[in-house]
Amino acid sequence: MPLPDTMFCAQQIHIPPELPDILKQFTKAAIRTQPADLLQWSAGYFLALSQGDPLPIKDRVELSMATQKTDTGLTQGLLRVLHKQCSHEACVALPELEHKWRTLCLPVEKLRALIGLDPCEDEIEWVKFLALGCSALGGSLNSAMKHFCEILTPDPEGGQARIPFDTFSYVYRYLSRLDSDVSALDTESYLAALQESVKNGMIGLSDFFV
């Protein structure tokens, strides 16, 4: 004999007091981030929330500039998210990086292609991976450095995007070594010329990028 349908009244249903705000913040985050796979991103979002980790949320809505033929989904906004999640350690373990990459619904083949530019076994220096990601966005070394500065800078958006010159030169040397068209001599000459315009150990976009 089938059991009768259970009847509930409003007084019988307990709604956790924090639920409305959790759902509100989740909805706002999903709209801002625009994940390609909402379920996959949601799993990563709530896992990070439960563990008290930085959430995979973009600062603002962002439209991908990639074309349909070469669309990898990678944008400066997503690199910013990864930077917030990974920059607390000098190096990031590759399995952890892949998990965060998948959470952002990015193709794993693209991740492996980036790491393949500077192969490593178990972990990668975060600043180097961020530089590789910026190189994937920029069509030139200077363009990659522009993205890098805009992600790292504490300056307000639209400002000079200043970062320490030591960090800039470290990353510029790293990327130039991976570019067969740029010689070590040219790299050092360029950095020496730039250093003349450096103030208080900081370099901004107007110093090197037009």
UniProtKB/TrEMBL annotation:
It is found in: Cell projection, Cilium, Flagellum. Coiled coil: none annotated. Its main location: other. InterPro entries: ROP_DD (IPR047844). Gene3D superfamilies: cAMP-dependent protein kinase regulatory subunit, dimerization-anchoring domain (1.20.890.10). Keywords: Cell projection, Cilium, Flagellum. One of its GO terms (cellular component) is motile cilium. It comes from the Eukaryota. The keyword RNA-binding does not apply. PANTHER family: ROPPORIN-1-LIKE PROTEIN. Belongs to the ropporin family. This is Ropporin-1-like protein. It comes from Heterocephalus glaber. The lineage of its organism: Eukaryota, Metazoa, Chordata, Craniata, Vertebrata. The gene is Ropn1l.
